[in-house]
Specification:
Number of strands: 6
CATH architecture: 3-Layer(aba) Sandwich
Low-confidence stretches: 240-244
Distance between the termini: 14 Å
Shape: globular
Structural class: alpha/beta
Radius of gyration: 17 Å
Length: about 240
């Protein structure tokens, strides 16, 4: 039996490695597949993107070559937007929609005017470092490391442009369930999170967890439980590998 594949998209400035810990914490019927983006990690030599839909289509093309349905998409922050665009890109390529889309830690595509304010223009290094500081996900020791920052800031700058230049478009809604995760102390408002319900004709749910923007690390066990619980029904209904 084919396991269910979980494609995971990273947040701004990050590589696919942020999900590597999840591999040993998921049941065997759920296959973790972090998606590396151009310009980071193993793809460091490739040019960075600032067009969300073009990047999503490229990634869908790449994944389609080896991906065996069924699959689900998970993304945090920028990765949530990218995951949503990949769902549409897969459909445009004639591939099945995901069995579920998990959108974590960010405003819905149609409610981003305030959320992404100022991101459409390139930021200075100082502005980027201050943005990292306000998200409380990077230590002062790392922020003061000039060599590390010289590698990180170009990626972060491109990722902010990816989000800041994103604009919703009219198109048929997804049919798959959309599950949203939010941090109770994060900047995405309840309204901005619930707005994700406008992206699908399928079912919709929201889970609020303790923590700020990086609650997916602070509350890792709970995040994985939500993913597992939401996908387990599909796993059982379709007779996938009954292990784990």
């Amino acid at each position: 039996m084919t396991p269910l594949t979980l494609l995971c998209l990273p947040y701004s400035g990050a590589s696919a490695m942020v999900y590597s810990r999840w591999r040993r914490k998921l049941p065997e019927w759920l296959k973790l597949q972090p998606v590396e983006l151009p310009g980071r990690g193993a793809r460091y030599g490739e040019p960075l993107h600032t067009d969300m839909r073009r990047l999503a289509l490229q990634l869908a093309h790449e994944q389609k070559a080896t991906l065996k349905a069924p699959y689900a998409l998970f993304g945090h922050s920028m990765g949530a937007l990218l995951a949503c665009e990949m769902a549409h890109a897969f459909r445009s390529l004639g591939y099945p929609e995901p069995v579920a889309l998990f959108a974590s830690g960010t405003a819905a595509p149609t409610l981003r005017a305030e959320y992404d304010r100022g991101f459409a223009q390139p930021k200075t290094d100082a502005e980027l470092i201050e943005q990292l500081r306000t998200l409380n996900g990077t230590s002062e020791e790392i922020l003061a490391n000039e060599e590390l920052m010289s590698l990180t800031l170009p990626v972060l700058r491109a990722d902010f442009l990816l989000c800041g230049r994103f604009a919703p478009i009219q198109r048929p809604l997804l049919k798959c369930p959309v599950h949203v995760l939010g941090g109770k102390a994060d900047r995405a408002t309840t309204e901005q999170l619930i707005g994700w319900s406008q992206e699908t004709r399928g079912s919709f749910s929201v889970d609020m967890l303790a923590g700020g923007h990086f609650f997916i690390h602070e509350q890792e066990a709970k995040v994985l439980r939500v993913i597992k619980d939401q996908l387990e029904g599909h796993h059982r209904r379709h007779g996938l590998m009954a292990v784990g």
